[in-house]
Amino acid sequence: MKIEIENWGPVEKFEYDFTKSMIVAYGENNIGKSYAMQVVYLYLKYLILYSEWSIRSIRNYWYYRDERNKKTSPVEELVLEFARSKSKTVQLISRELEEICAKRMAEELFPEIMDSFRNTFGTFDIMLKDKPKILLRSGNQITFSMEFGEEKAELFMDRKPVRLRKALSGFHKSRNGKEQFDIYVYESHVNAPIQLVEEELWKMRREFSGELLRTIKSVYFLPASRSGIYTGMNSFGPILAQLSQNRAYIKGTIQIPSISEPVSDYYMQLSDINETNKGHFAVVAETIEKNILKGEVAYNKKSKAIIYKPYHTDLQMEMRDTSSMVSEISPITAFLKYIVSNNVSPWVRRYVGNSVKPASIIFIEEPEAHLHPQNQIALIKAFAELSNHNVILVLASHSNYIFNQLNNLILEKKLTQDSYSPILVYRKKNKSISVFLEVDEFGADDENFADVSGKLLEEREELIEKLIQESCDSNDTDDRRGNETEEVPAT
User: Are strands 133-138 and 2-8 parallel, antiparallel or unpaired?
Assistant: First the structure.
């Protein structure tokens, strides 16, 4: 599955390939890496919720909704027009069904997603003038796009063609052939074909939802400055986080602090840890504790806060009392120990089957923050191990140590070239664009840090050459002065 965003604030185009398990975006500061990450996180969050709801909803939900609203549905109009036509005996309606399905999905998806983006991006309403768009592709089966300026959606599905076909009697209702699915219409008897067309729309929505849920089960977002956010919000964070997520509904003169939804999600998850959820990724968490933190990350039920216990001591330290390295890495460890889960809801499991293992996606901004290069390398090794446990890691990084270590992991065959997706983000005029870097058995070529390293090396060589030249000039001057002194006659 791939997701592409277009015309979002500073981002002209950015694409993620979620068939990969280790995705890392490299690029300069203030270029849109984190921005794109938040857009896609929120989009997937609501798409997963919608898909879970879709597979639980009753058959012909849309039909019954239109009936309650005394509204003529597009399906009724489609079938009635065909029934009244004297020239048509067969009509392919697959494209019409895609359009109806997309329109109905848009009606259900846009309200919540639009509120979510408004809560997160302060200039969202201004951005709408650029017609921001999100495009999802799942193999060759599904293409789904949402255009946010006009709040419309478009859907294409690779499935068996559906046709309306005139019948000579009302005995036959439909025929599911090898090449197409025929729905029979007999004279003006349209109730049965309308129900059958609605049934196809219900199947399309479930097929779309099933395709997503077979790939992804949940998404998580860990922002940059994890320690500062967590410590700063710890005393009154839950109230602010919840109010911030509903800021669009609050009227009057009360000013709610602008906390983006991904950040409030992050804090609320850390503040509502259930210790009984231990075990899903505890092995990787313990690797980070042992090799980097040199201590254990735990949860204090009384204070409802994560704490750090250094090895071989009785200390229990809250995040505000630890080093910057510990306070930045501890939230990541807590997510792996207590929050990120492999569990799939019974409804989803019943639909996708027991053999399917949808992945969790973890978005992490700047995982290397406050880490010594040695610890950056240790962390990325743990992440590579995690990416082999049905987790998709999406990172935004400025670290050449992480870049080079990932190449080494490919050389060591601890990370496959097919599972790694390095992304270069660069500026094009006033906007940023992402491109996938090519990966082979030796890793990826450095198109981000190499120029800077080269310039530093050139500068170093020039400075050394300058020092040598200055030293030579100084020696020449001293020699000349010495010669002049020797030529002075004795008095």
Answer: antiparallel
Nearest to 184 by CA among 172, 195, 194: 172
Q: What is the pLDDT of residues 184-232, one digit of tens each?
A: 999 999 999 999 999 999 999 999 999 999 999 999 999 987 766 666 5
Is residue 130 within 8 Å of residue 13, measured between CB atoms? Answer: no
- For the chain, what's the residue count? 491
How many C-beta neighbours within 10 Å does residue 139 have? 12
DSSP H/E element including 273? none
Going along 324-390, which residue ranges are E strands?
Answer: 359-365
Q: 134 Cβ partners below 8 Å, 6+ apart? A: 3, 4, 5, 6, 39, 40, 43, 145, 146, 148
Residue 335's SS3 state is helix
pTM equals 0.87
Cα distances (Å, whole numbers) of residue 93 to 48, 72, 90, 168, 372? 28, 18, 10, 20, 61
Name the one residue in this structure whose structure tokens are 């017609």. Answer: 131
Q: Is 430 helix (H, G, I), strand (E, B) or coil?
A: coil
